[in-house]
Amino acid sequence: MRVLLEMRPALDGHAGIPQETRLLFNGLRTLQGINVEGLIQSSGNVLAKGLPTVEGRWHAPLTRDKQINRLSRVVVSLQQKISNAHLAAMGMAMRRMLGGRESLGRFEATHFRDFIWRMLFARTLPYENFDAVTCADFRIARVPWTAMHRCALLTKKFGYALYPRLDTSDYDVLIVETPYPAIVSPSTTLVVRYHDAIPLLMPHTISDKVYHQASHYQALRNNVRRGGFFSCVSDATRSDLLSIFPQAEARSTTIHNMVSHHYFPDESSPARVPEVIATRRNDRIAQRGAAMDESLRGSGAQLEFLLIVSTIEPRKNHTTLLAAWEQLRTERFPNLKLVVVGMLGWGNKAIVKKFIPWMERGELFVLADVPSPELRLLYKHARATICPSFGEGFDFSGVEAMRSGGAVVASEITVHREIYGDAAEYFSPYSIADAARAIAAVIAPERNERRLELVAKGAVTSSRYLPDRILPQWQEFLRNIRAPGVAAKNGERT
């Protein structure tokens, strides 16, 4: 079975969907009977041409130097924006929609293994996987992913959302990481890795609301209507999908995310925690005063802290955690610090404004670009990792904390109950007092037995998401959707 996997998310970010994309690509390549290649596409840049799929089909074969030059230009175009890229891409996509399909150029990684490894895989996979992923084959989609979405939204104003057609006829399956703004060849089965329906069910929590809500809905609707299959990251996400498109029930299943190999309970020393905090501070947040450095110097191995690992944006509910932490410090735990790991997302200014006074006193630390081995250290030695979000599709941070030997306190939302089971202490995300209660129930000295219980349960619960438990589910799923007649029976290939 030939499978093409969208790699666009892997170009950015350490965690979440980028991490899942890398793990899935590497994992699927280990399955017998499945040949996986990667689809390289930019969110906003028009890419240079890859190599033709059939040498000499329309022109004389390219000499080797011209092949290398063309591939080199693909690398450059991924990283350097072209002026008027959106206008050029929209014109390109519109031309494709009026006739023919967008061909996918080849990208040979032989001379560009450094680029493939560092741009797509190094932030998640161990070096041991270098040869396996950099020797893979790749295809190039020139039209930007965002431009595909915008073309559909533009044409929808005239009555019908139109999407470009990709020539995926060389592949049995195309796996994409979110609702995909294109139409695949009739012989190809589209599989949408569906992470969450937040743009539709919680649109008040997303950035650029008009665009993201509309683009998600239109692409999802198109994928459903044209017979796409859906691999949802949780039962909660699948339930949300079916509440919107019940007709997708027979074409949807749940396959949970995989946890990275980086997370396991090692014998690290808590004395390293201040060093990690000092070297990974987010330099995008202006900080004044020396209290932070003094706090770290005086902590030794006794740093008591809560940890949250999440993009800083309103949906992640940092403000409830902050207020609960302030209450805990006032009432019982005066030396308790708060460590926040995550990039600055949309709507972060109001949150960061509340952080800054505590940062200047050396009581709260905001970190960014924390490598996985150091994050594992923080998970293990935090008094608890807090997952306070209002809505999620899966939520990696709690699982990673459990794999690292840490205790988890989480908001009582459906997906947390599903993914974390009885290995977490829960609280209402709308109640500061309840959040403080739940945290105290885990970190108080007299509650150490409860903390150890959560750590033990977490080791069992998080093992469900190891690759050797998840990959067989993918193998069965892919085999089933390519069974004779399945795609034709369930889809509208028009």
Characterization of this structure:
- By secondary structure, the protein is α/β, with parallel strands linked by helices.
- It has two domains: 281 residues, Rossmann fold; 195 residues, Rossmann fold.
- It is built from 20 helices and 14 strands.
- It has an eight-stranded mixed β-sheet with strand order 3-4-2-1-5-6-7-8. A six-stranded parallel β-sheet has the order 11-10-9-12-13-14, sandwiched between helices.
- Strand 10, helix 13 and strand 11 form a beta-alpha-beta unit.
- Helix 3 packs across helix 6, helix 6 packs across helix 8 and helix 12 packs across helix 17.
- The protein is globular, with a radius of gyration of 24 Å.
- The chain starts with a strand and ends with a helix.
- The relative contact order is 0.11.
- The C terminus is likely disordered.
What's the structural blueprint in terms of helices and strands?
Blueprint: E1 2-6, H1 17-28, E2 35-40, H2 64-79, H3 85-98, E3 105-107, H4 113-121, H5 130-134, E4 138-140, H6 145-156, E5 173-176, E6 189-194, H7 198-201, H8 209-225, E7 229-232, H9 235-244, E8 252-254, H10 273-279, H11 291-297, E9 305-309, H12 318-331, E10 337-341, H13 349-360, E11 364-367, H14 372-381, E12 384-387, H15 396-403, E13 408-411, H16 414-420, E14 425-427, H17 432-443, H18 448-462, H19 467-481, H20 486-490
Parallel strand pairs: 1-2, 1-5, 2-4, 5-6, 6-7, 7-8, 9-10, 9-12, 10-11, 12-13, 13-14
Antiparallel strand pairs: 3-4
Helix pairs in contact: 1-19, 3-6, 6-8, 12-17, 15-18
